[in-house]
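Here is one chain, start to finish.
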Amino acid sequence: MTVIKDEIRISTSGEVDMIDISSKVQNIVKKSGLKEGIVNVFVPGATGSLITIEYEPGLKKDFPRILERIAPKNEYYFHHETWHDDNGHSHCRASLLGPSLTVPFTNGVLTLGTWQQICFVELDTRPRNRRLVVTVIGE
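Its structure:
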């Protein structure tokens, strides 16, 4: 079993920016030379998330609307008392979505559905430069 670590660096435009990173993850798997295994992508930080979604214009509009219903921006969050940064909803959304995603690969190709992409979702209230940790495990 071989373990390879790499990184993806992205810049976001701020709250609910969704970035398709599928090709970047696929390139890391290909570069690893491994044929069978799993790849894990992890975001260090408490206001970013990784998801799979059909990355198309309609869902890019729908997804932020659903997040607003689940953890509304204009609700009161006790987190604001701690740091006064008004992003309590960002932390709640990120906790619900999760900071990592694992995808299997076969013959060096990610096992994603036809309309399924890997996306990073920025949940913080401001633009950020993000580092995603990618771990490829396999043979």
